[in-house]
């Protein structure tokens, strides 16, 4: 898929899923930049802090930010999305270790 096709798919996904109309009048280039920035923050493990700052500092709804990040990762950077999913955070790693322990698995 070409970069133009990925860009178009991203913008279409944002427009389709933006039920509240938060981004209806936002410049498409800005939407792309925001999605890319959020995706990088997710990749670096800083997504929660970046979203909290945008929500608390600028009043952007969390659902809207999640939409931008998810659409960018799905339509523009699916390999980055796979890498993010493959990196468990401490909370998910703890949950997995607990499940393994409760299931009878022990560290050797």
Task: Write structural notes for this entry.
This protein is mainly α. It is built from six helices and no strands. The protein starts with a helix and ends in a 6-residue tail after the last helix.
Short description:
The chain has helices spanning 3-17, 28-43, 47-58, 62-75, 78-85, 90-102. With 108 residues, the chain is mainly alpha-helical.
Q: Catalogue the unreliable spans.
A: none
Radius of gyration from CA coordinates: 17 Å
Strand content: under 5%
- Terminal CA distance: 45 Å
Describe the biggest sheet? none
List keywords for this structure.
72% helix, single chain, 0% strand, elongated, mainly alpha, 108 residues
Task: Explain the layout of strands and helices.
Elements: H1 3-17, H2 28-43, H3 47-58, H4 62-75, H5 78-85, H6 90-102
Helix pairs in contact: 1-4, 2-3, 2-4, 4-5
